[in-house]
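Deliverable D5.2: sample structural annotation.
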Amino acid sequence: MDRGNQSVVSEFCLLGLTSSWEIQILLFLFFTIFYVACLLGNFLIVLTIISDHHLHSPMYFLLANLSFIDMGVSSIATPKMIYDLFRKQKVISLKGCITQMFFIHSVGGTEMVLLIVMAYDRYIAICRPLHYLTIMSPRMCLCLLTVAWTIGLTHSVAQLAFVVNLPFCGTNKMDSFYCDFPRFIKLACINTYNLEFLVTANSGFISMGTFFILIVSYIFILVTVRKHSSAGLAKALSTLSAHITVVVFFFGPCIIVYVWPFPTLPIDKFLAIFDAIITPFMNPVIYTFRNKEIKMAFHRLLVKVLHFRKCFHAQSKKLSIIFPES
């Protein structure tokens, strides 16, 4: 291929979600509110679980890690998306694009595996309660978390290894608000059919596979509980409904984006909003409003903060009396 008359692409122009000024203002308010609420909500969950000894159990250890990951998920593309809304030229460098894709798939793949670990944790808690603390020991929890991060990193690096050296010498316009493999590969100067199939096989397989594993595990838990106790079925449904809601919100867009036969339809960038900001925001909402222990822990944390503030003001007042200002 003769590249003499073609310029090598070093940055990409992101077309964003819309060019309408009025809609951009609405999107700015929407994304800013959701992003701030997402960070504060997930940070509050992590802080509460760490500070409250009543929540030092495997389930809440995994929940704290899910909230930590969600803060990362929402921070990969959302700040730049908000920043770019009022920019005429929404550009990102080639290295920045590759970095963004690496973190999106590393953190996203880790969250997928973590959701399986959380489903396994609920299976042990519901179906084998007498052995729960023995099986889900601190060492086991750390091992499972390490496996989740290892699989997430491997999943991301495996895809980047095939696309990091792709030649880009034509158009640099990407019809999205962030970088992802399907649209990134389409802009390469070579035949990318095999690479597109690889991405679909990799991301599509892990999305579909994880989704089916989770659904089957939930069905298995409910069937097992129903055999042992009809009364326990309602409790199990209440517990698992939160997990199922998170799974549907998270995996629905992923499956459509990576398995849908027309991956460059405009709908995929709007569906990506769910994984970028809606799902990370929904996780603390779902787990907080449906969990009495978390709400009680929030109350205890608030009492501690107010007590600390009261003591701090009292101490400041004493110091002002002892050392009055001249």
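Annotation notes: The first strand starts at residue 11 and ends at 14. Confidence is low (pLDDT under 50) at residues 1-7.
The annotation will be released with the project's public dataset once the embargo ends.
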